[in-house]
Amino acid sequence: MLNENPNEMNWRNKLEDVDGLSSEVVSDKNIAWEKLYSRIQQKTVRMNSRVWYQLAVACIIAAIIIPFLMIDKNPAKQIRNNPIGQSQKTAPPDFSLTTVNENTSQFPLNNKKQAHQLPLKNNVVNKKHRSPRIEKTAIATSVPVLEENTIPVTSFSSPILSTSTVAQVKKKLPVVHINELGISGDDPSNMARYYEHRAFQLKFINQQVYTTSSPGRGFNILKSKINPSN
Amino acid sequence: MEIIELIREARQGSTASQKYLFDLLSDKMMLVCVRYLKSREDAEEAMLNGFYKFFNKLPLFQYQGDAALNAWLKKIMVNECLMILRRKNVFTIVTEAAAAEIPFMEDALNNLSAKEIFNLILELPVGYRTVFNLHVIEGLDHKEISSLLSINEGTSKSQLSKAKSLLQKKLLLNGTTYVKRKSQ
Q: B143 or A132: which carries more pLDDT confidence?
């Protein structure tokens, strides 16, 4: 510090002499104060708006995050909390398909009673006039009708099946369904075989001649047997 | 009302106390700002910025006497002035080697009036003036000045010596007029 010299202190003190430098001081203190006060007020307003902005951002983030958390938790809770009956309701396609396939694969040609148990009558008969491609989808949609009727027989027969998880059962669905119905591709030979198969079932439903259709006849046989009058 | 009470009330947000403190201290602080910035508009801006920060940081301030309060507020003002100088980019000091110390004409300055001393300082170039203010009037050493202004210590020393030599020249040039006026 340079405070040792008393003379130096003297001239330095003169620089802070407000009376001696009156021309250099603030001309109008009130105006200066108003400027300063407005700045202080703006600061408080800015602080308030900043707090509200932060609150709004927090609310938006919470609104986005909470639904995601709920979605993640729900499936697990449902699986845990579902009673046996509810889990069976979600599973019906599996059991129905397996039963349908079993029934169709083990279908005896001369057994009228078993043939009448199949509820495919209406669905398949109405779709006889359609093209082969449309019938593909029609048969696929006809599966749920089978499910509703066949579930009670197979699914409640064993308690082990009723407690099985949904994921394990779903794996069997597509493979068995496609193979049994013969809709593996667009191959025309497969389509012909498929129509023969369906025609064979229709014969049972209509209680007509119980013979298999020959591959040479193909669709003509099916068309001729749509109406009972024919 | 004592200053300590004013500070306590201003801390709690009393506008009247803040205005009273402003009225009490603004003139002194304006002089400091003008000494650094020369321009009255810039000086007023620096002073208002300084008081704004002063009132914002008042809750952190522990009152230890009027001198401490003055020193703290003065430090805030000097920092504001330096910020304005940096912002206006007028404060460019070329790096120079350290110059030899020049003896300062203390007696000559003591014989001058406050206004004369003030005007002599304002006539200095901005770089010289800033280093002179910081070293001779505020009492900072060259290390502190170099860190404040982001310059070398040698540059600070050379700027100070040049400021002193320029002041001496001005004193010698105007010496005749000062002597004549004193004799009158």
A: B143
Instruction: Please tell me the predicted confidence (pLDDT) of residue B103.
Output: 67
Confidence at residue A226, expressed as pLDDT on a 0 to 100 scale: 52
Interface probe for A, chosen from B18, B22, B31, B41 (most Cβ of A below 10 Å), is B31
Rounded to the nearest 5°, which phi and psi values hold at A37? -65, -40
- Tell me whether B109 touches chain A (CB under 8 Å): yes
Query: What is the ipTM metric for this complex?
Result: 0.79
Tell me the two tokens of residue B170.
């001005």
State whether A29 and B31 contact (CB < 8 Å). Answer: no
The span from the CA of A132 to the CA of B149, in Å, is: 90
User: Which residues, including other chains, have CB under 8 Å from residue B7's CB and lie 6 or more apart?
Assistant: B17, B21, B58, B61, B63, B69
Residues of B in contact with A7 (CB under 8 A): 106-107, 110
Angstrom distances, CA of residue B33 to CA of A188, B61, B70, B82: 98, 22, 14, 10
Q: Is A16 in contact with B31 (Cβ distance < 8 A)?
A: yes
- Mean model confidence pLDDT for chain B: 85
